[in-house]
Amino acid sequence: MEDLEKLLLSAQKGDKNAFGKIYNLFMKRIYRYCYLNSGRIEAAEDICQETFIKAWKSLPSFSLFKGGSFQAFLFRIARNCIIDLSRKKKELPLENALEVETVERVEDCVDREERISQVRQALSALREEEKHLVVLRFFEELSFNEISKILDIKEGALRVKTHRILIKLKDVIKI
Amino acid sequence: MDRLDDLRKKYISTDPPQSLGKGWSGIEEKLGAQETPSSFTTHYIGTLALSFLLLSLLIVGAAKASKPGDKLYPLKIITDKAEAKITRNPELKIERRAEDIIRVSDDPKRLDDAIIRYQKTVKEATQEVKPTKANKLQQTLQRQEEKFKVQAKFHPALSEKLDEIIKVEQRVEGQVEGVENDDRRQEKGKVKNSHNTNLKKN
Questions:
Q1: ipTM of the complex
Q2: pTM, full prediction
Q3: Residue A119 in contact with partner chain B when CB distance is under 8 A
Q4: Of A48, A57, A116, the CB nearest to B34
Q5: Strand, helix or coil at A92?
Q6: φ and ψ of B65, to 5 deg
Q7: What's residue B160's pLDDT?
């Protein structure tokens, strides 16, 4: 955690190498969050990249010492990018999708797609906001305080919502 | 809860494609300048100032259309006073208040308010007017009087109050004439004095 603080302070002063290290620390988490919510590999990549570019731009305004959580800051940007994308409903041409997929092994790609589609299917009974809440709370294991900052919901209301979602999920996926 | 754990494991094991792992160099190229906190503040203050300006313009615009007795009418008086001061044209206030009288000439309640306001404005303008411009004020008052007389033919409520308005106007016109005469007398005196001092010198 101390390392992250140092990296953040350096990145806030414009150190791109420090930000590169931060990117490597969070890239996987942001990518799978984007992938689950966008449903497309190439869209997830785009959103992931955009998230880090936007985070870099607004990094000086982020304050760790005022109780800010960097992962909440990053996930909030990612969520906004996902919302923007769903508004635009921008579809990438098929050739692009094929290009990306030929880079790695087909089995890896199918494997990943299968895993994420199982998760997506299990959560399909939930509303968008509820899905975000489940992913952030139970998969990414973020605190209620952090999630409240990402989703712009008061902590108390968030706890009540989570409780209700768990009841709802019990019926759907028999947890 | 096992099922949720299972889903979590599946979610966590979703690794990004290798291309993204190497993608830092691609992102690094796209990183532009960072937004400094001061630029956030400037942006915030700028937006706030612009919103305030737009809101003010909207309110002033609404006030311009108000009639005597309306809630925004006092604001109209203030903006007209400011406009008259900036353009150095005290007659402007008189013309605007006269327009107000004509606009409410069918509404006796508002008409009373408008007449009181008009009389006040005329008195104010008389005190403010410079002796050299007294003639212009007098002409403005005469013009308004004529307008009122024409409108009175069509609006009985205004017709009833017409004498009241004209009396005040005439009283004020007399004062204006007085100011003008005093001014002329002073000027004549000055000329005489300078003439006398010149004679003495000679």
A1: 0.77
A2: 0.55
A3: yes
A4: A57
A5: coil
A6: -90, 0
A7: 79
pLDDT surpasses 60 at A135: yes
State pLDDT tens for residues A59-115: 888 876 566 789 999 999 999 999 888 877 654 443 344 444 445 556 666 666 777
Q: Does pLDDT of A141 surpass 80?
A: yes
CA dist A16 and B48 (Å) reads: 33
Token pair 């889903």 in the structure block, residue: B7
Separation between Cα atoms, residue A36 and residue A83, nearest integer Å: 13
Residues 6+ apart with CB under 8 A from A19: A7, A11, A52, A56, A59, B31
> What's the length of chain B?
202
Query: For residue B157, which of B101, B116, B117 has the smallest C-alpha distance?
Result: B101
Res B169 pLDDT > 70: no
CB-closest option in B10, B20, B26 to A27 = B20
Q: Which residues of B touch A123 (CB under 8 A)?
A: 7
Q: What is the pLDDT of residue A93?
A: 42
| CB contact at 8 A, B141 and B95 | no
Question: Residues 67..96 of A with a Cβ closer than 8 Å to B: which?
Answer: none
Closest to A109 (Cα-Cα) out of A97, A121, A119: A97
Instruction: Report yes or no: B105 and B61 within 8 Å, Cβ to Cβ.
Output: no
How far apart are the two ends of chain A, measured CA to CA in Å? Answer: 33
